[in-house]
Design brief:
The protein is α/β, with parallel strands linked by helices. It has eleven helices and 14 strands. It has two domains: 213 residues, Rossmann fold; 67 residues. The structure holds adenosine-5'-diphosphate (ADP).
Length: 295
């Protein structure tokens, strides 16, 4: 099954054009949607999740028309929104059982088996009796995934799931998502380059409602081969460098400022060639949308 988005546009009532001719084909596996805040990621996720209308364009999931056949699509869709509330005084086990019953699973024994399997999968079995209000950020996210997986979805959408997680929790969450990605289409929206680097076979960069790049992380990095240059400079000169070069990253280390620039030609002036990274691809893309046309 594939998710195919064609020429999708959305303008909000206040005139903000949140999506502008977005076309993407997303096969099974982990797909990263990488973009800064305000890029249009949540708008796209909510539209795919049948929670809001598009202005124009089409989305199909296998044989279903996502923009019209909401009920059918919801049967095969799992969605973990950016912010989701939990009932703080209810345990994970009771909550999942309750949602499974709402979803029509009437047989108590089958429900118990399903809930146990899900809690084991997201590594919350030993914490199943604890009230959700006592869970850490990472545990809540994993509970959210268990909830989203209840209907055995063919498409799982997770919106900015790793923001606010500590490194250990993030790692655990990565492992969980990549396991799910083996049998499901998973769309992961994020502004964290590491999420894409770690998890995604394919990804898109989205900015100002437009897709700037689609491909594999490896291809994206290779395209910048020979075009990234680095230098350490006195801090006070950074504005001057920003005027003269396409500065894509600045890092302060031991009191010195290291800058990375993108340039097709050797810029001279003490710059040395640097190995491109996915972060370079991302920052170059969003710092200058025009440049990316030739990436
Ligand atoms: P992201 O998830 O990448 O941060 P969003 O889809 O939330 O991006 O937002 C894209 C743009 O649309 C932003 O400029 C945002 O302010 C605007 N926007 C989002 N939701 C609404 C809304 N309900 N009404 C008006 N503007 C909105």
């Amino acid at each position: 099954m594939e998710l195919v988005i064609e020429n999708l546009s959305k303008t909000y009532g206040n005139g903000v054009k949140a999506l502008n001719g977005v076309s993407l084909t997303i096969p099974q596996g982990m797909f990263g949607l990488l973009g800064p805040n305000g890029a249009g990621k949540s708008t796209l996720m909510r539209t795919i999740a049948t929670l809001q209308d598009a202005g124009s364009g089409s989305i199909t999931l296998g044989e279903w028309d996502v923009l019209k056949q909401h009920e059918q699509v919801r049967q095969i869709l799992g969605y973990l929104p950016q912010e989701f509330g939990v009932y703080p005084r209810v345990s994970a086990e009771i909550m999942l059982d309750h949602i499974a019953r709402l979803k029509g699973l009437a047989n108590r024994k089958e429900r118990a088996q399903l809930v146990e399997a899900l809690l084991q999968k997201v590594n919350l079995w030993s914490a199943r009796k604890r009230n959700l209000g006592t869970y850490s950020g990472g545990m809540k996210q994993r509970f959210g995934i268990a909830q989203a997986l209840l209907g055995n979805p063919k498409l799982l959408i997770v919106d900015e799931p790793t923001a606010g997680l500590d490194p250990a929790e993030r790692n655990r969450f990565y492992n969980l998502l990549s396991e799910i990605g083996e049998s499901t289409i998973v769309i992961l929206s994020t502004h964290i380059v590491e999420d894409v680097q770690t998890l995604c076979k394919r990804f898109a960069i989205i900015c100002d409602g437009e897709v700037l790049y689609v491909g594999t992380p490896h291809e994206a990095v290779q395209m910048l081969g020979g075009k990234i240059w680095a230098k350490s400079i006195p801090k006070e000169e950074v504005d001057d460098y920003r005027e003269r070069y396409q500065v894509i990253a600045t890092n302060l280390s031991e009191g010195r400022l290291f800058i990375r620039i993108a340039s097709d030609e050797n810029p001279g002036n003490g710059f040395t060639p640097a190995e491109p990274t996915l972060e370079d691809v991302y920052f170059r893309a969003i710092s200058s949308k025009m440049d990316l046309v030739t990436l």
